[in-house]
Design brief:
The complex is a heterodimer. By secondary structure, chain A is mainly alpha-helical. Chain A is built from 18 helices and no strands. In chain A, helix 2 packs across helix 16 and helix 15 packs parallel to helix 17. The radius of gyration of chain A is 25 Å and the shape is globular. The longest helix of chain B has about 35 residues. In chain B, strands 1-2 form a two-stranded antiparallel sheet. Chain B has one domain: ABC transporter involved in vitamin B12 uptake, BtuC (Orthogonal Bundle), CATH 1.10.3470. In chain B, helix 2 runs parallel beside helix 5 and helix 4 packs across helix 5. By secondary structure, chain B is an all-alpha fold. Classes of the chains: A mainly alpha, B mainly alpha.
Chain lengths: ~425, ~325
């Protein structure tokens, strides 16, 4: 199995070199940075699905949370907001949220005072409802005020890497809440629930203009390394400055990816990883051995989400723009699933391979199909059947089809992925057989 | 009275239309889940595909100069449903049947259905582009206005012709499905298989045929729902992708695997969505002078941008309070 991994990785290396020769170094370095970030996200999903068997369809939501976090931390401070009434209004909204939370907690404690059954349920519903009303009554005017005066709250002007860390922390917090509600549901239900959560996160980030600027987009989001413009100021040629800047970004991202890979590979082969796989394969047996299945699954859901959040933060800071309108379930959830399934669920090296390989396929299928269409169009034109209209916009859509084709072929002919999970058998067992 | 008419137009009519679309989609999902035990994610895209099939047929029929008393979209719907059922059978044979034959887990089928989703999306966008189309390019929608001046209202109840037809077609389809499931041999076989597939096979039911019948029904209903959605709004490639979540919510709320539950769930989710985004301040308008001024002019429960969250909140509440759905579904 190791031989196979080495062969596949060398082929991938050859492919990258080939892409570099054809498309040029600036394009390839950009591709590699994004591919590295996606492979980090694929690692996160691999933890959740490959180790834990949790069906997370809400990856887009966590990527968006990471993107928001890095924007909030690293974008310069908006003095207009801090000088206005905005912070005070927001403080009032937070207080209102606190009052609402107290009401809900209080309602949940009612059974202690002997209030049970229907009365308790009604009290609970009333508590949630009034908490919602109280919060809305404070947040709505605050949002309106901030949007009309300062635009949005702005950032904190802190280092970018801190933003990546915060992306992980924020994703962990959201994962904790979602996990508390949704884990323990059956696979199909978990899939629907997580897809719903990610749609809600998208709706929130897209429409909370006071916090995220919504579809107006925030840019520029700073880089952790010098930007091409900085290199140009030092007297580097334009083309080379892009290569240098992106290459140094790539090095930072690779350090993060390799660090994460090292850590989770260690965890995988340790007792923790064995326990997780035993829960995945048979959670009833694992529970009967005294493992707390629910809290372990919550743990793994949070760990995976942290990696996804960091990956999303890296993607946003590399793109230099946070555009909530640009997130699509196909581009940010399903493509990750294809990466993990094709690469090999349950194998970290497989997930990284799938991340890089599928991202290259995903990006390159556009120019390749465009070239293909131009040729077909020329042939059909030559036969007198007329040319294909709107080649460019159609070629862009080809990659969705290619992605679907890749995953169906993979499921049919290589259901365990290109680099499958390694299953260690104990030596005594082999002898006995 | 005008306020009440406004409420009727905004909530009752749109809720009924939305509910019938959700119900038809949810029936397909719930039947497939009952028979094949996996959540069929590509259902939303089968709806879009069906709508595009109808669109091509309409274009063809208009080109040869056919006209009829009803909008062309409804006239060609039966043919489109047959074609869509054939496509559904083809998708099953090409993508799901080989996996089933290998004995793959339901989760694998679920992932395969994502692959199918992506392929259908890609193909539709490849051939039709991403722009919106309408079924009513030539003739505008006919709008019925029911005069309510009898009750002292100046505004009429207004409902478009496709909306009325839609609700009628849904009622017919649901009744037909009911008689099929309770009276016909195949329907009984389907219910038996949904209860216990192994037992059904042992008692001599041809399970492969039942699976095919399931796909035919699901495909035809998906085409119907997709066409109706396209008739009510516009035809876009991502038409159904956006409503796959409310449809799943409807199926789960009704109890997965339970056909009647799916209908109830569809209408429940549809009405809940329109009720939640309705601005209740409108109903208070006549009493405006007598009310304290701190009551805002916008009393909608949920801002319109967050309409999608309503379906999800219902879903979460049902999953927490009654995981098997309102009617006990085929859940384990």
């Amino acid at each position: 199995m190791i031989k196979r991994a080495i062969i596949l990785y060398s082929l991938l290396f050859v492919l990258i070199i080939g892409v570099g020769l054809v498309m040029g170094a600036p394009f390839t370095t950009r591709l590699m940075v994004e591919a590295a970030a996606y492979s980090l996200i694929a690692l996160g999903l691999n933890i959740q699905w490959g180790y834990g068997g949790l069906f997370n369809f809400g990856i887009m939501g966590f990527i968006m949370i990471g993107g928001f976090a890095v924007t909030f931390i690293s974008v310069p401070i908006n003095m207009e907001f801090w000088d206005s009434q905005g912070p005070f209004l927001l403080f009032k909204a937070i207080v209102a949220a606190g009052i609402g939370a107290l009401l809900i907690i209080g309602a949940n404690k009612l059974p202690r005072f002997g209030i049970k059954g229907k009365t308790f349920r009604i009290a609970q519903v009333l508590a949630w409802f009034s908490a919602y009303i109280i919060f809305r009554s404070q947040i709505d005017p605050a949002a309106k005020y901030i949007e009309s005066t300062a635009g949005f709250v702005g950032g904190l002007g802190l280092p970018v890497v801190l933003g990546w860390v915060f992306g992980g922390i924020l994703a962990a917090g959201v994962a904790y809440i979602i996990g508390k509600i949704c884990l323990g549901l059956r696979t199909d239900y978990l899939a629907i629930a997580t897809i719903g959560v990610s749609e809600i996160i998208r709706a929130l980030i897209k429409n909370m203009d006071w916090l995220t600027k919504g579809t107006l987009t925030v840019s520029p989001v700073p880089w952790p390394v010098p930007k091409p413009q900085d290199f140009q100021l030092m007297g580097v040629q334009t083309l080379e400055s892009f290569v240098y800047a992106r290459a140094s970004f790539l090095i930072v991202v690779l350090i993060v990816v390799l660090g994460a890979l090292f850590l989770i590979q260690r965890a995988y082969s340790g007792p923790w990883g064995r326990m997780m796989r035993s829960i995945r394969d048979n959670h009833i047996a694992a529970a009967s051995m005294g493992k707390n299945v629910k809290s372990r699954q919550l743990e793994i859901f949070i760990f995976g989400s942290v990696l996804i959040g960091i990956g999303g933060a890296i993607l946003t800071s590399f793109a230099q723009i946070f555009d909530p309108g640009g997130y699509q379930p196909i581009n940010h959830t399903f493509v990750i699933w294809v990466m993990v399934i094709v690469g090999g669920a349950g194998n970290n090296f497989g997930a990284v391979f799938g991340g890089v390989f599928i991202y290259i396929v995903w990006v390159l299928s556009e120019p390749v199909s465009q070239a293909l269409f131009i040729n077909i169009s020329a042939i059909s034109d030559g036969f007198g059947w007329g040319a294909i209209p709107e080649i460019e916009s159609r070629a862009l859509q080809m990659r969705v089809f290619v992605l679907g084709l890749v995953i169906t072929i993979a499921l049919r002919y290589a259901p365990k992925g290109l680099i499958p999970e390694v299953i260690h058998q104990q030596k005594e067992n082999k002898k006995a057989q | 009275m005008n306020e009440f008419i406004f409420f009727f137009n905004k909530v009752i009519i749109s809720g009924a239309v939305l509910g019938s679309i959700y119900a038809l989609g949810a029936i397909g999902i719930t039947l497939i889940f009952g028979i094949l035990r996996f959540a069929h994610f590509a259902h939303g895209d089968m709806m879009t595909l069906g709508a595009f099939v109808t669109f091509i047929l309409v274009a063809a029929a208009t080109a040869i100069g056919l006209t009829g008393p009803l909008p062309m979209g409804f006239m060609v719907l039966p043919i489109a449903m047959v074609i869509a059922a054939g496509l559904a059978l083809g998708i099953d044979k090409g993508f799901y049947a080989p996996l089933r034959a290998r004995g793959a887990k339901p989760v694998t089928l679920l992932i395969a259905s994502i692959g199918v989703t992506l392929m259908i999306q890609g193909l539709i966008r490849l051939f039709f582009g991403v722009k919106s189309r309408t079924f009513f390019a030539e003739a505008p929608k006919e709008i019925y206005r029911i005069d309510m001046s009898f009750f002292g209202a100046t505004r009429p109840i207004s409902v478009t012709q496709p909306q009325i037809l839609m609700i009628l077609v849904t009622i017919v389809a649901v009744l037909a499905l009911h008689f099929f499931l309770t009276k016909s041999k195949f329907g009984k076989a389907m219910r038996a298989m949904a209860d216990n597939a192994d037992l059904a096979q042992v008692s001599g039911i041809n399970t492969k045929l039942v699976i095919r019948v399931t796909w035919v029904i699901a495909g035809a209903l998906a085409c119907m729902a997709g066409t109706m959605l396209a008739l009510d709004v516009t035809l876009k490639p991502d038409l159904a992708f956006n409503i796959v979540l409310p449809i799943f919510a409807a199926a789960i709320v009704g109890g997965l695997g339970h056909a009647y539950g799916a209908i109830a769930g569809g209408f429940l989710v549809g009405f809940a969505e329109t009720l939640a985004v309705f601005n209740w301040a409108v109903l208070l308008r006549p009493f405006r002078e007598n009310l304290p001024s701190w009551i805002s002019n916008d009393l909608s429960l949920v801002p319109t941008e967050y309409k999608l969250t309503v379906a999800f909140v219902i879903l979460v509440i049902v999953l927490l309070v009654r995981p098997t759905g309102i009617f006990k579904g085929a859940s384990s």
